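sorry for the late reply, my laptop died twice this morning and i had to redo everyting from scratch. anyway the thing you sent over, i finally got around to it. pasting the sequence first so we're on the same page, its 350 residues, then the predicted structure underneath. double check i copied it right bc i was rushing
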Amino acid sequence: MRKGSGSSDVKRRALELGADLAGIASAATLNAFPPDPRWPQTPDRILPSIKSVIVIVQRIPAGAFRAVSNVPVQYMDMLVLRKMDKIAYRIAEELERAGHPTFVTAAQETDWSLKRASYGRLSTRHLGVEAGLGTLGLEVNILTPEFGPRVYLTGILTELELEPDQRITEQVCIGESCSRCLHSCPPNAVLHWGIDKRGCATEAQEFGFMTMLQFMERVIDAPASQRSQMLKGRDLFGFWQGLLRVVGSFGDCPRCLAVCPVGNDYHAHLADVQKEIPERTPEKNLIQKKWKETRKAGGNMPGLSEWNARWVGPEGYKGMVAKQMQEFKRKQKALSGDIPETADSGSDKG
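ok and here's the structure:
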């Protein structure tokens, strides 16, 4: 990357290196709008001289979400994170060579001086929203128009001032009228524009840090006659595998990701196998109905407070996903020869 590179140069370079999406967030904006002001995840806590955060997105190949177990998604997650780290490192290295101090943050990390559980120095999903790459969904994953929630993001912090991208102010998530994430969640952890992290972790971090501590406590308290058997069982093997490959140690429950209808990848590869949601229950239907009625009546919704609405999409849902799906299906038909693709059909987003 050359000295004097601007935002378009940086984003173009990220795509050349293999990122699926790239955007720029202003450090000043991130400092002014932390996700939770009580526990600020802001660049100035890391280095006050940071001017911009380059955000890159790596999609998780949708084929893994067709599998009958979580293992393929777990392994693909590890590969995606490795690829993303390499791309982010290259960008940081090239910018620093051009005279701009730059470094990469870990995509998955926890700062124990802040909230406990998975709460990093920066929130990558909020970075993505501020960089114009998507908005938060009902289950507060970031949803990109291109790939829905089936993505990972990381941030590259630089002292180079770059022109930031504009936030998407329309709600990408379909919202309460969809609620497929609610219906599919095994531990019923999806709240109204929120998530019960502890409930989610029972599935998403099957072999996570807290699970490992609980297991070791059980081993210590167990009679000596049982300890040997416990140390040769499935749980210890799971922790070893998690340390070795990150499998099962974080974010390995793909249900809400697999069923989300946002993104062309869903319509291309997942709609047929994910149409039916076996976890759906009458009780969840009633929750969805209550959510819809509360939203329509303008009732009290903590997840859609004036502060949080910034990342959900203050304009609400206006049919973005439906329009995109129709355009995608039209192009698919054109490619198959069913209908001609007009010359003025527009171009794909870079």
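The chain has two domains: 7-168, 180-312.
thats about all i looked at so far, will dig more tmrw
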